[in-house]
């Protein structure tokens, strides 16, 4: 983390250096303009030194030296992962320097534990930190001695204080700045100096100088930043002098200059302290005052326009033209033999929408990844890139031809790719067998695009499309599918950058024995009693805690959501009494574990299988979830101490909990509405979409699922009634298009046993969750749960583990893939198929 911050600071410093060098030239050009314009532009430099991100513009001055900004709005001359690169490279903003620097960078050492450049960065990082600490200490020490001197100052009026003896006036403070004047000032000198310091305060100069000093502390290693710090102070003082002259009049220039000269010969109370600054560089200031003339209006307007233009150019990062040009100037295709009957079959590139195109000449032809390369071969996936900003056309000959020479051709993938025109403007296309080794004709391939962070961790996964497997040819390593031109283009452009294929088996005879999830011994329909979390166990209540506080004996079993466990005292010291009733009590008694307390955790994700653990493992598994949840425990008390403690999930740290079934009451709630008295809502407001007969209950005969959709006046909704053979309602499940009512209800069959399933999805990009319950219905409508689990994600609070999530998702998919949809209102849309 600190190493990445150090590299980010180096990149910011390099960007600011370019702007500082430009400012030196601008400052010379602005010599005839008021100094306030130069002073304003120094604020742009300060922004560059303190803020790593900015907006993009084609007018960017930085773009002259660096054509692209990284995708998160920062310049990256030095890659954040340079320490881990085998061939580290930088791209500095000074032409011709990068190659010389790259030649000196030590290459990676795959045989060692660290790369040499990692050691260099580590040492440099600590030198940088030490330098900042020295700067901060020096400033703190100066402020300490200054405050001792300020104790002798006497308040005069408002924010003006008088110092004994001689000395230059100065301003001290940020939020409540004070002006300190010496007793030796003449009335005329005091008039000029007081106005000068008041202008400083009005312009918020104390805040600006403090931020400038913070930037100097951060970038202390950059000599250009020291120069900018000094010149910006001079411009600040001279612009303030000019403001005094404009306010009082040009007639006081000689007297004002004489006052500065007189004060310059006196004792300076402060020096080098950002929170307190006075007058410096008197010679240059006097020369500027004596030569100052009120500029013409046209000069002020021209300088203002130039200042705004330069500020935009200095602030903006260059526009990344890659994306805008990629669609026009980058083409993806498959190398194939020309569809010809001649003796010689030349190679062409087969591009969706364009057909066979002659492979253009290129400045370079090379593999994108390291492979043995002896030229293009049939079956290669290639990317053809043309110069940016140039219009490229494809001439309609056979084979077609590009209008000009390519900049480069890259081999993105080698070997098994093929593309053939099919009916209805579609293509037969081959996916490498390695992306789904177990694929068989009739299976489905779900194709996803994954994006990773700089550490290689999957950050986001986007569903692209789903295709049926038409043919599998192991000898040529090919899976043949049928795709639209858009789908082929998407696959070709994303291959090698995070594409993932998920195989959905469709052959039930082959997969019935495979689809059973882990923990299947406890998830068969005959073992519901073992799986049900005992919801009848009460929460620890206020009266129970009062029993503990009164030191009376507390005995029994209770549920509790814990917030903290004291390891040394061996007990629970923070907890939620009853998270549903929000009970509260002034003093929470300490809940101690007995010496021989039995600790157990549920090791399953979607069922119940308790396993004995020791105290330390119990505490660790509970603490893993404290960042986002108060983990649920079941505790047995005997004589006021806990003798039996159960943690209801071993997966809290990954956002996973077992999800017990909570019956839906939507249909019962509708029937209880006063306005529904005497009305059958199904007949009045709903329409039956269809019904399905299946043995999803333990009663006699076959049960029926009746699916209804409609609107009772509060938005579209749906209801599924589950009835026994006699038509009696066993259970109902509702769904609404309002976000809080989104629901997905399925009917499935696994290993010859029908079941019902409901799935809730709440995805808000950076946080959300999924949960599901699989169940059957008892003879009287009781819920016989087979499986249930929830997965919560929050990129700020819950660490994401791809392997654990895949395990959780695999268990859910084992049921979901055997289901048909009954009713869904996901994303606010009612669907029944």
Write the layout of secondary structure elements.
Elements: H1 2-29, H2 35-50, E1 56-57, H3 97-104, H4 116-150, E2 154-157, E3 160-163, E4 170-172, E5 178-182, H5 187-202, H6 205-218, H7 223-248, H8 253-264, E6 276-277, H9 282-291, H10 297-315, E7 317-318, H11 322-329, E8 330-337, E9 347-351, E10 355-358, E11 365-367, E12 381-385, E13 394-395, E14 401-402, E15 408-413, E16 419-422, E17 426-432, E18 444-452, E19 458-473, E20 478-483, H12 485-494, E21 499-504, H13 508-511, H14 528-531, H15 542-549, E22 556-566, E23 571-576, E24 591-602, E25 610-613, H16 615-623, E26 632-638, E27 641-647, E28 656-658, H17 666-672, H18 681-685, E29 686-694, E30 703-711, E31 716-723, E32 729-736, E33 744-750, E34 753-763, E35 767-777, E36 783-794, H19 802-816, E37 819-824
Parallel strand pairs: 1-7, 3-5, 11-15, 24-27
Antiparallel strand pairs: 2-3, 4-5, 4-6, 8-9, 8-12, 9-10, 12-15, 13-14, 16-17, 17-20, 18-19, 18-21, 19-20, 22-23, 22-26, 23-24, 24-25, 26-27, 28-36, 29-30, 30-31, 31-32, 33-34, 33-37, 34-35, 35-36
């Amino acid at each position: 983390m600190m190493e990445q911050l150090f590299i980010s600071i180096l990149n910011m410093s390099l960007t600011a250096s370019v702007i500082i060098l430009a400012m030196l030239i601008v400052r010379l050009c602005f010599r005839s303009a008021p100094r306030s314009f130069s002073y304003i532009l120094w604020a742009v430099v300060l922004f560059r030194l303190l803020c790593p991100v900015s907006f993009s513009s084609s007018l960017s001055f930085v773009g002259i030296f660096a054509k692209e900004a990284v995708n998160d709005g920062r310049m990256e001359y030095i890659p954040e992962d340079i320490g881990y690169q085998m061939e580290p490279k930088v791209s500095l903003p000074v032409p011709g320097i990068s190659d010389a620097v790259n030649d000196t960078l030590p290459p990676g050492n795959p045989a060692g534990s660290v790369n040499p450049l990692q050691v260099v960065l580590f040492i440099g990082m600590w030198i940088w930190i030490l330098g900042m600490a020295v700067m901060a200490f020096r400033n703190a020490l100066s402020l300490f001695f200054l405050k001792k001197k300020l104790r002798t100052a006497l308040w005069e009026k408002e924010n003006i204080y008088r110092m004994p003896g001689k000395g230059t006036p100065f301003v001290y403070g940020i939020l409540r700045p004070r002006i300190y004047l010496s007793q030796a000032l003449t009335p005329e000198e005091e008039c000029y100096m007081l106005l000068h310091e008041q202008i400083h305060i009005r312009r918020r100069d104390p805040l600006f100088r403090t931020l400038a000093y913070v930037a100097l502390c951060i970038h202390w290693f950059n000599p250009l930043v020291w120069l900018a710090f000094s010149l910006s102070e001079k411009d600040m003082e001279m612009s303030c002098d000019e403001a005094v002259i404009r306010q009082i009049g040009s007639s006081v220039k000689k007297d004002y200059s004489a006052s500065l000269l007189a004060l310059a010969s006196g004792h300076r109370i402060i020096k080098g302290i950002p929170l307190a600054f006075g007058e410096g560089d008197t010679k240059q200031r006097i020369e500027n005052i004596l030569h100052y003339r009120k500029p013409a209006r046209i000069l002020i307007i021209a300088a203002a326009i130039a200042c705004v233009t330069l500020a935009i150019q200095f602030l903006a990062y260059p526009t990344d033209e890659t994306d805008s040009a990629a669609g026009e100037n980058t083409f993806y295709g498959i190398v194939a033999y020309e569809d010809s009957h001649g003796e010689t079959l030349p190679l062409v590139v087969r591009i969706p929408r364009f057909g066979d195109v002659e492979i253009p000449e290129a400045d370079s032809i090379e593999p994108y990844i390291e492979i043995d390369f002896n030229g293009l071969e049939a079956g290669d996936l290639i990317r053809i890139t043309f110069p940016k900003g140039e219009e490229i056309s494809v001439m309609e000959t056979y084979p077609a031809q590009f209008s000009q020479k390519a900049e480069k051709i890259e081999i993105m993938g080698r070997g098994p790719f093929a593309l053939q025109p099919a009916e209805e403007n579609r293509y037969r296309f081959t996916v490498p067998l390695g992306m789904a080794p177990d694929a068989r004709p009739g299976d489905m391939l779900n194709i996803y695009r994954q994006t990773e962070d700089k550490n290689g961790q999957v950050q986001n996964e986007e569903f692209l499309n789903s295709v049926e497997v038409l043919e599998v040819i192991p000898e040529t390593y090919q899976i043949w599918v049928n795709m639209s031109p858009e789908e082929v283009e998407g696959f070709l452009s994303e291959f090698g950058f995070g594409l993932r294929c998920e195989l959905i088996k469709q052959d039930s005879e082959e997969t019935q024995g495979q689809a059973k999830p882990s923990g299947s011994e406890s998830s068969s329909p005959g073992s519901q009693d073992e799986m049900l979390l005992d919801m009848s166990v009460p929460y620890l209540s206020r009266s129970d805690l009062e029993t503990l506080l009164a030191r009376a004996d507390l005995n029994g079993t209770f549920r509790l959501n814990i917030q903290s466990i004291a390891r040394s005292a061996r007990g629970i010291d923070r907890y939620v009494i009853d998270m549903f009733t929000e009970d509260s009590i002034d003093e929470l008694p300490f809940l101690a574990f007995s010496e021989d307390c039995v600790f157990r955790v549920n090791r399953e994700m979607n069922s119940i299988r308790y396993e004995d653990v020791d105290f330390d493992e119990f505490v660790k598994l509970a603490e893993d979830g404290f960042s986002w949840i108060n983990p649920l425990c079941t505790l047995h008390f005997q004589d006021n101490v806990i003798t039996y403690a159960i943690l209801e999930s071993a997966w809290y740290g990954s956002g996973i909990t077992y999800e017990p079934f909570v019956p839906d009451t939507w249909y019962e709630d509708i029937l209880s509405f006063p306005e529904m008295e005497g009305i059958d809502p199904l007949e009045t407001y709903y329409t039956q979409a269809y019904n399905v007969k299946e043995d999803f209950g333990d009663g006699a005969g076959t049960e029926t699922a009746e699916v209804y959709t409609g609107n009772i006046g509060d938005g579209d909704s749906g209801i599924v009634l589950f009835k026994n053979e006699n038509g009696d309602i066993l259970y109902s499940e509702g769904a609404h298009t309002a976000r809080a009512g989104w629901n997905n209800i399925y009917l499935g069959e696994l290993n010859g046993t029908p079941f019902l399933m409901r799935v809730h999805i709440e995805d808000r990009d950076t946080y959300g969750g999924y949960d599901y319950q699989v169940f059957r219905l008892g003879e009287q409508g009781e819920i016989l749960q087979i499986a249930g689990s929830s997965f919560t994600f929050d990129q700020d609070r819950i660490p994401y583990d791809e392997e654990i999530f895949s395990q959780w998702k695999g268990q859910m998919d084992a049921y979901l893939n055997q289901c048909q949809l009954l009713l869904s209102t996901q994303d606010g849309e009612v669907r029944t198929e």
